[in-house]
Amino acid sequence: MVLGLLLARAGVAVTVLEKHGDFLRDFRGDTVHPSTLALLDDLGLAESFARLPQRRVNTVQLPLGADGSLVTVSDISVLPGPYNYVAMVPQWDLLDLLADEARKEPSFRLRMSTEATSFLVERGRVTGVRYRTSDGRTGELRATLTVACDGRGSLARSRPELRLRQFTCPMDAWWFRLPRRAGDPHGLVGGAGDGFLTAMIDRGEYWQCAALIPKGTDAERRAAGLERFMVDFSAAVPWLADRAHALRSWDEVKMLDVRLDRLRHWHRPGLLCIGDAAHAMSPVFGIGINLAVQDAVAAARHLVEPLRRGAVGLADVRAVQRRRWPTAAATQTLQRFAHARVIAPVLAGRPPLGNARWAERVSELFTTAPWFRRVPAYFIGYGAMRERPPAESVR
Ligand SMILES: Cc1cc2nc3c(=O)[nH]c(=O)nc-3n(C[C@H](O)[C@H](O)[C@H](O)COP(=O)(O)OP(=O)(O)OC[C@H]3O[C@@H](n4cnc5c(N)ncnc54)[C@H](O)[C@@H]3O)c2cc1C
């Protein structure tokens, strides 16, 4: 949607296909990072965005303490400028805002309930997609450039020449809601239990809860009973214990498969992959949305001119990967480190970082040297490389 808006504002004809009839998916993550807040400001959307329901979060906490206690590893409030926080906004509200804004451009079309089903390929070049609508109609859409921003289950991943590289992930996520009450904490709150980690996202009326469980243990844990999980959960998050019974059946607990992978090639003639389609991100640090948005901004900047000319060469799409690959690879390396050295040991009931003394030292460093938290704060806030939108899209 970000890429569609930026290109349409620059006068490029864009059609966005979305397979669902609305944006009401609740498992996308709600984080809008400083880089995206600054982008919305550049696009003249800061005021409309400020009117959306939101909570502000400044800190990220990980269970690095020797006893699994939470340590602040990143304090975004120390960053300079007005956007020194992460806004927690239901993603459907943000997407609706972007869609409404893009629809003001005569060259923009959004086709909801329309699923891309395969690529059109002519003489080795992708020339568009075949699609199917929710009422069963099918058709073809031709394009100078097709951008796959269809997430980690991307259609582009069916193309073996793009070469998917997968990394091991120690966890999956359970996703469920619990009621929120006046007097509860605000923002993003974490916790560590016996064999699981939790994160609660403040969505105003309710808590969107995530529980990270060891990969592949979903069926076995469900078989142990909901009551057992609720007892463990209440022990890990005592301030929510009085509402644990609000969860009545396992049907209310969705299992989200966590993946971390990356395409070696994000492009082929006529095709570019960005966001999770190019590099599926783990929920660790909550930065996948930031990366996807920044990919879109970089893609718009590199592609406006060739798209206006109506001729996008391999060098143009390659330039986008060259620009964005280092950030994606560096971020995934950090996520892999957190998976291996923090999440996997904690889920297995061992101290993070190999031994309790190390964990204590690092935890001390984060606690006693606030400057140490600046590096992850900048990384989470802006990513390794900050992207600027094309001048034509700025308002
Ligand atoms: C459990 C979990 C929690 C997470 N929490 C966070 C978080 O808090 N913060 C954060 O920054 N990141 C988080 N992430 C990572 C984040 O969700 C992704 O990195 C981010 O959503 C990627 O954005 P995207 O636009 O590339 O893909 P997506 O958000 O997956 O969007 C893809 C879109 O394409 C549509 N689509 C798919 N296939 C087709 C098709 N064939 N035709 C038409 N439309 C199609 C989908 O309906 C969807 O709207 C989390 C990930 C997981 C697994």
Topology of this protein?
Elements: H1 2-9, E1 14-17, E2 31-32, H2 34-42, H3 46-50, E3 55-57, E4 59-62, E5 71-75, E6 86-88, H4 91-103, E7 108-111, E8 114-122, E9 125-133, E10 138-142, E11 146-148, E12 164-167, E13 171-179, E14 188-193, E15 196-202, E16 206-214, H5 218-223, H6 226-236, E17 254-256, E18 260-263, E19 267-268, E20 271-273, H7 288-309, H8 314-347, H9 356-368, H10 374-382
Parallel strand pairs: 1-7, 11-20
Antiparallel strand pairs: 2-6, 3-6, 4-5, 8-9, 9-10, 12-18, 13-16, 13-17, 14-15, 15-16, 19-20
- The CATH topology annotation of the largest domain reads as FAD/NAD(P)-binding domain
Which stretches are low in confidence, meaning pLDDT under 50 for 5 or more residues running?
Answer: none
- CATH homologous superfamily assignment of the largest domain: FAD/NAD(P)-binding domain
End-to-end separation in angstroms reads 17 Å
Tally of alpha and pi helices: 10
Instruction: Give the overall average pLDDT.
Output: 90
CATH class of the largest domain: Alpha Beta
Radius of gyration: 22 Å
Estimate nothing, just give the exact number of structural domains: 2
From the helix content, strand content and strand pairing, which structural class follows?
Answer: alpha+beta
Number of strands: 20
Distinct small molecules: flavin-adenine dinucleotide
Share of helix among residues?
Answer: 25-40%
Strand order of the largest sheet: 14-15-16-13-17
CATH architecture of the largest domain: 3-Layer(bba) Sandwich
Which outline best applies? globular
